[in-house]
Design brief:
Largest interface: B-C, 54 and 54 residues
Number of strands of chain A: 10
Oligomer: homotrimer
Structural class of chain A: alpha/beta
Radius of gyration of chain A: 22 Å
Order of helices and strands of chain A: HEHEHEHEHEHHEHHEHEHHEEH
Number of helices of chain A: 13
Chain lengths: ~325, ~325, ~325
């Protein structure tokens, strides 16, 4: 160890996991909308959805007897000339259900598939199994190192998965793109009873977020099952974003807009970010160190946070307000 | 890896820990009542206790000078013809106190002993030491693989234990039955000061719960030291249950009833579970997928949670209300 | 394993980490005040500071162009006859910035240096690099096993660091003295947006605290950037202390007093501790076990917590109230 250290600390870097700073960003996936694979009307409607990601569902939204028909419907849609504007994802059935092999092989063979959501990911081997099927069935550009590697979403739905989450997050290199908190199954497995405060979920959601970020992955928050209450959805979405989630599952088209607005930065935070950015740069040019703005000490990490907020606003199509030297004095 | 994977994903299962779904259930242990081993009147009274579990205490409730007499009293009771209705447990003194060998060997030789609580379990080796004494002293039916393997309760009382909790949970296979959160010693070790909100304990209790569940173990919540306030006890008990604990320690007989009621499902939740169960089964028979009930989307995980609630009600002796097709439309 | 176990459970002790009970205490470091290394007036003023620890800052408070001048100023101060009453610490620039080698070597060569804060500690190897420089540059008494080993503060500022925190805490044996929660950079990396409740930080702060304690280290809480609001600072300081932190960063001299008062035990808690101590000792002398005081059951762990509170009060120079037998009946 000492030998390599002598050559300089720039070589001292862990290889087990990497912070987001040193990796490609995961795709922007604010709302991830499930569309029941067995419902032709909803499948058709999904093509016009503004959701950042559409997850064509072969799992919980499809009853066992309807699985083969749903698989066929989804495969036809994913292989057609038409596709939604957002990411094209399929949620297959979990390993061990007996449906998963046909599900996965079928969707991987389609033209438009970009991502696969794997329910009940309880072990890193399950991720590696998906990777082995990608290697067997997909064209080179969808394989590791290709132009558009197929993305895998690891769905965390059990105590076992949470205990193994670091090993899961380290699996499927180049393909694993996000971890997802599947609250209903997770709570059933752990024995958690949900409350309106969601305090009982804080540990579990926080651990998922920090693990995802440590491995350069996105973090997708729970479904708001109360799909008729946009205000409850807004509150829950904003809370998830504050915890560090990068997006949220939607089970109804009318949830998409609320979620996507919540996961875009607020006007106030964009304005603040623009002011921090300008004042920091002016201050730095003048060769000064830490300084105050609105009674708060501004330093390098706050500057980086401001840059990140501005980048998200740009990605969400929100204009950045102009700020002048006068505004930050 | 790939060779075994090719034979099908049904073989892709982790071996390090297992979710509750794939293991025997831990025993129902809603209230675990400590009875001071040095107090003949309380020992006698314990025989009539309705508690799911009685933990005859040789540790904190017994002063050092009274240890040998208490050990003798407890051994006589545990070896007699009479026993309480609930589980018969002994809490021995911690490893390193100098009392633990005599405590353990004495209680393991008794006829009625069913479980041992091990205080200050800071390392998996301590669990394995208990197992080695079971193998040496107990009849075959109390050993691993026997009809009634003696159960071990691992008491988590320090920062070190929490950092090693996954290794502790993996120890004592076939004997380790539950992890227990010993708040007083734990807070003293970590430097936590308790508040009425218990927010400062949320991380620690949640981590214990999810680890216990990942290894198929029960999770026993903290003592409510405020033993004269049944309302505070009720609130604390219900909170623990929502976090996923399966039971709670009691230090006074008048705490047992409140705890056991809190850890049984509520009438409202049983009714809701019965409605979810029926509507899901009707919907499934009709070959439909996800659907709404009372404005909430019902799917497979919610159905499983409903089944679990009903099973707990049955175990606690609570009648399940009858629900008809008309009630779920 | 069984062979060693047979020789008695007193040899059953983990070696991976140790609870505070079995290690030297970390130094008392209630307030850790940053002083910008580039500001001669503030450097001079720091010599009169009552802070338990002064961290001469070469990192965020110093702009890149001012780094060499700041390094020289700090080195001169740390090598002079004068020193502040508290611990003398330097915060160097992070590994990978290009400044860190000159920073570290320069401050290690000074007479008064007692501790080094290492920003963005993302890997245990970074700690070991600091140790290797201590071995190369410091006199024997500042090396491992010496009379005053130089102390290292590991600053946790990223998701990666949190995921590796147990390995970081196990590094730099004999030198690593505390882990520090660097909220601004941490939140930017994880994507957390701060709120006034700080609920979004609870998981992260709690995990840092319990890991630090498991390895016998101090735990230093976040900066209160709102440096003009002493009441907000007080609330935040007391909260940190309840979570188990042993101290808190300060970025302005006027924060020191509020923090150091908050991290000293309150009069009420000292009085309660004195009452618990006396009543427990009286009860123990009388050979009785658990008993009640003010409606709360008092046992051995509560006694130990009381002793710890009294020890902290003594260290902070607060008088212990006299309690007599009559006061605890």
């Amino acid at each position: 160890m000492l030998a390599s250290l002598k050559s300089g600390p720039s070589r001292i870097t862990g290889t087990r996991c990497m912070s987001t700073a040193t990796q490609r960003a995961p795709v922007m996936r604010r709302a991830m909308l499930y569309v029941p694979g067995s419902n032709p009307r909803m499948l058709e409607k999904s093509l016009a959805s503004p959701a950042d990601s559409i997850s064509y569902d072969l799992e919980d939204a499809v009853s066992p007897s309807a699985k083969p028909a749903a698989r066929k419907l989804v495969a036809e849609l994913l292989d057609s000339e038409r596709r939604p504007k957002g990411e094209v994802m399929a949620r297959i059935n979990a390993v061990g259900t007996g449906f998963e092999i046909d599900d996965l092989d079928t969707v991987l063979r389609t033209r438009n598939i970009e991502a696969v959501a794997l329910p009940k990911t309880n072990d890193p081997d399950q991720i590696e199994w998906v990777v082995s099927r990608i290697d067997a069935l997909c064209p080179p550009e969808k394989r590791r190192g290709g132009a558009n590697p197929l993305r895998i979403i690891g769905m965390i739905e059990s105590a076992e998965a949470m205990v193994k989450i670091e090993r899961i997050a380290a699996a499927g290199k180049g393909h694993l793109d996000a971890l997802l908190f599947a609250a209903e199954d997770y709570c059933a497995d752990v024995g958690i009873a949900r409350t309106e405060s969601r305090a009982e979920l804080l540990y579990h959601r926080s651990k998922l977020v920090v693990t995802a970020k440590a491995f350069g992955l996105g973090a997708i928050d729970l479904v708001c099952v109360n799909y008729k209450d946009p205000e409850a959805l807004r509150v829950e979405s904003e809370e998830g974003r504050r915890l560090g989630f990068t997006g949220k599952q939607a089970i109804h088209p009318n949830q998409v807009d609320v979620i996507q607005r919540a996961y875009a930065p607020s006007e106030a935070s964009i304005l603040k970010a623009a002011r921090v950015k300008l004042s920091f740069e002016l201050n730095d040019k003048a060769g000064k160190g830490a300084y105050g703005l609105d009674g708060v000490m501004i330093d390098a990490p706050m500057y980086k946070q401001a840059l990140s907020t501005i980048a998200m606003a740009v990605a969400a199509g929100i204009p950045i307000p102009e700020v002048t030297e006068k505004d930050v004095q």
